[in-house]
Structures are given as structure tokens and as C-alpha cells.
Amino acid sequence: MKLASVMSAIGLSRRSDTALASLERALILANVYCDLPLTERSTRRDDWVRFSRSPFPPETIIFRTELLLKRLIESHIGNYGPLRGLVLLGEDVRVGASRLDLLCEDVTHRGRPLVIIELKRHQGGDRLAGQLARSRLNPIPERVSFS
Q1: Mean pLDDT, the chain, as a whole number?
Q2: C-alpha span between 50 and 56 (Å, rounded)
Q3: CB 50 within 8 A of CB 35
Q4: Higher-pLDDT residue of 44, 61
Q5: List of E strands, the chain
């Protein structure tokens, strides 16, 4: 059913984050799962919403190229979910012998820590951990080189 139908069923003629948050809490108490966060601003009235008595399995999303995934993530930086508090500082940043896919700054935390977003295809976490450890050993210079 569409979010607009859900809103109509609970008596909402327009979006109310308070009412939708209350509905989300009621669903949790009733052990009913929803596949979309109802209170997220990116959830639109015309989005389809599913409900279930068991958790929804994660959907597999396949991108044909790393660049397509990178562009999607870049478009969400500063705008959506856990990426909302980030500001993109650079793409393909060279640090020593390593290259960081996306370098961001978290402007919502004290000290504005750096956040590294690395995209890996068919590589285990051990290789990524090694790359990030090497990046720590090579501090990010004031002036970074972009390729």
C-alpha cells in the first residue's frame, strides 16, 4: 500500500512527522515490521510501503560499475540518512601509496572528524582494513592530491 493510503487510514490529510513517529512506535510494539522508515523525509506519499510480522531481508543492490555506486553515494552526502552530516572534501584522494575513494568531514561532531568511504568489489574486509591502517600511518596532508 502507498504511504498516502497509510496516512489516510490513520486520519492524516497531510504529512505529520509526529503522527508518523507515533505510528512507527505502535508498529514496533505490535511486532510489525515496515520496509521503509515512515518518518524519513525521503519517504514520499507515493512510495509503496510493506508491512510484515517478520523482518524484511536486505535487498541486494548491484551496480554495474564502481563509478555508478560512487555517484549515488556522492549524491547522498549531506542529504540523506547517515551521510547527512558529511561534507565531501575530495574524491580519489592520494595518501602515501593509497588512494581513498571519498574523503569527507563530519560537521555534526566536535572536532569535525574525517570520514573515509572506501568502495570495494569482491575484496575481503582484511584488505580494506590494511588499506585504512596504511592511511592512518600516512597522515592526510594539508593539500591533498586528486587524481
Answers
A1: 81
A2: 9
A3: yes
A4: 44
A5: 33-34, 51-52, 86-95, 98-106, 114-117, 145-146
